[in-house]
Amino acid sequence: MGHRAHYVIVQDGSWDLYHSQWGANDLDLDLLPGPDFALRFMSSQRLLSGRDLVWTNELMCEAAAIVVPREKRLGFYLINHRGIVSRAAMLDVLALTWPGWRIEWLYQGLPDVLTRLGEDVSKVHVDVSPYLQRLCPAGRYRGCLVTVAENGATRAYALSNVPFEVVGRGEKLLSTLPDEALTTSLRLTPDSGVHLDVAGRQAWLWSIDPLYRVLEWANTSWPDWTWTFLADDWATHLALAGDAVRFPPMERGFALTKLQVRLGRHAACHPADDAIRVLTAVLGPGPEACDHHMAVPEEGEYATALTAIAALRREA
Fold it and tell me: What's the pTM value of the predicted model, to 2 decimals?
């Protein structure tokens, strides 16, 4: 139950791990006001230490952030990123509200946090193979765009699946892609994409969803194929696909407006508050299911983020 998030603060050669049961969906909003607010927010969550220092596994942890103030480095990810346009808008705002900081998206998800700490990533690994869902047309979901170049033509499939459900099938993916997912024009921008050059046995992958070690699967399940990870470079995927598929318009101004509205509501009341009130009424105070704490903003902190959004909207 919940939307679990981890937060790590690295100071003076050591680190502290914090946990929220409800913080994942709006991690971006808790970062937008800047580093001072974000550090105050993170350190107000439940500190995991001693016997309680147990990591949530990579599937259950829907968002995480690691902050190294001395080096001015922020790394984070969240599953509920709301798509490539909204994520790009959010990153543009962070560049303004965290000036001078190196901001990194953690493409592997939670394992990237442990890697940065020099910890054993197997602590959070999960065998995702039992969670492979059948390949389905995207419908109202953003999902994964798969393009296949074969016999002089390129065809495109809009799937509702995430990358490990696509790549994890190995070469049999080519014979199991559903015809009902064929498309030449996308209604929604995808969250990930795979381009397969059958004759050249080359493949490209990009994703803003956590990878869950999908690149390891690619190397073992696709013998004699060469895989290239493009990070979030969907434009290269489109170039590889040629005119086989079109993306919908990238409405950056609309994404910034939505972000502005979300942040304004967030400043008034965190969405987790309602869930926590219900759980507290049912379970009583104190259970882990209710773990989440808001930080009190200092004067001007939210205004700084809202001003940055307004400036970017004027440019859009």
Answer: 0.91
